[in-house]
Amino acid sequence: MMALLDGSSSRAKRAVVVGSSFAGLTAALELRRRLDPHHEVVVLDPHANFTFIPSLIWLPLRLREPGEITFALAPVYQRKGIRFLNQAAIRLDLDSRTVFTARAEEIGYDRLLLATGRAWRSTGSAVWGRTAATRRRCATSSTRSRRGTNGSGSSLTPGQW
């Protein structure tokens, strides 16, 4: 990330952040603060609102209203000069440095940050079992984790791990 952050390049570069919960939002704001203005920061997330997840416990008890624990992401990013695409990233091609979106857009990048968070079941519990298996597979296959492939090519689709 240093080459993008040091400002030494005269060519405009693009950093893409996939996900906009705590990690993605914080990273995008920090990238925008640190990068020269001619570099672009793009955030992709299928959710239009940020939800403060630790406060979800208060909703069933009616101690908070949904509007008290959420806010719209687009105005925040717009004020900071960050391009926000309210859509899901469905595939990555690491060789061509391209993110493919659910609306058939192709977004090239110089740097990519995956900040999608945990996968949640409809019951609200985290999907813990897949996490350990994913870590084992990535750790045992340096080629797969380095190239992001499923063993048959150079692209990775979320859920293949």
Task: Report on the architecture of this protein.
With about 160 residues, this protein is α/β, with parallel strands linked by helices. It is about 30% helix and about 25% strand. The strands form 3 sheets. It has a 4-stranded parallel beta sheet with strand order 5-2-1-9. It has a 4-stranded antiparallel beta sheet with strand order 8-7-6-10, with no helix packed on it. A two-stranded antiparallel ribbon has the order 3-4. Strand 1 (about 15-20), helix 2 and strand 2 form a beta-alpha-beta unit. It starts with a helix and ends in a 5-residue tail after the last strand. The model is unreliable at about 125-160 (pLDDT under 50).
Notable traits:
single chain, 29% helix, four-stranded parallel sheet, four-stranded antiparallel sheet, alpha/beta, 161 residues, globular
**How is the largest sheet built, in terms of strand order?**
5-2-1-9
Spatial gap, N to C terminus: 25 Å
Instruction: Tell the overall outline.
Output: globular
Q: Over the alpha carbons, how many angstroms does the gyration radius reach?
A: 17 Å
Instruction: Give the helix proportion (percent range).
Output: 25-40%
Beta-strand level of the residues, as a percent range? 15-25%
Low-confidence spans = 124-161
Outline of the structure:
The chain has 161 residues and is α/β, with parallel strands linked by helices. Helix content is 29%, strand content 23%.
Topology, please?
Layout: H1 2-5, E1 14-18, H2 22-34, E2 40-44, E3 49-51, H3 66-69, E4 70-72, H4 73-80, E5 83-85, E6 89-93, E7 98-101, E8 106-108, E9 111-114, H5 129-140, H6 142-147, E10 155-156
Parallel strand pairs: 1-2, 1-9, 2-5
Antiparallel strand pairs: 3-4, 6-7, 6-10, 7-8
